[in-house]
Amino acid sequence: MSCLFVGWMGFFFSAPVSGQSQRIAPRADGTLADGGVYGPFDGTADAADWFFNGAGFEGAITLQSGNQAGTGLEHRVVFEYDLSRITVTPLRSIILEVTLRGAPVFPMPPADVAVGTYAADLLESLSDFSIPCERVLRVLHVDPFQPPTAYRVNLTLMVLEALADGRDTVGIRLQMAPNEEAEFRQAFLDASDSTPSTKPALVLSGALLGDGDGDGVLSLSDHLGLLACLTGPGVPVQAACRVFDLDLDGDVDLFDQAFLEAYRAMVP
Fold first, then answer.
1. Are residues 167 and 100 located together in one domain of the fold?
2. What is the pLDDT of residues 108-127, one digit of tens each?
3. Whole-model pTM?
4. Quick check: is 131 in a domain?
């Protein structure tokens, strides 16, 4: 049930919002708990596994994987968004906002939560939950006992691609990133059906990303500016270069360059 890691990753960024903005809650969601008290761990969704979709669910969604008392566990949660609701024009920025908290257990390894794209329409069949995600957008690091922390993942390329293909929905899936040690890892997503604002939302705006010179267009000067700021993974970014840290991981590297090149070809 692992996701495929590919060239561009999800982007974590801070940029001023200009023009119109809009917030879209998921139109559908569901959780699969494969293993543990919910049934045997078999890697597929079936009648022994628990799921919800607008069923009055209240409380914390547990994201976990690994071994506990010798039993394999993997909990996954998916969210689907209705793109026909978008009213922002021009649409240049689409950010997923999600809040996660750490497991109240010590000692426990940190949890790395993978956020991936998910193509299936939710709950058309139980097998939808078993479809591997298309690509990982970002991996979010959550420590044990970490208080609720807001994360922002850039879905701009994903959504613009979907719109260009004529699709009216996009889906994302949260699950633990694979770990070779198979250690038990856990994080929590507090979301309830009675309070839609607790669920991960898409925040859309007309803000232009990577506009280093602030002239409102992406041009050669912006690409040259990014190249001048390239430091590589893990090298702290300087304040003047933060506009090019498109994944907000604290550096400017080839992922940021690849994003800017693809983004320039897609935005109006």
1. yes
2. 788 888 898 877 666 566 66
3. 0.82
4. yes
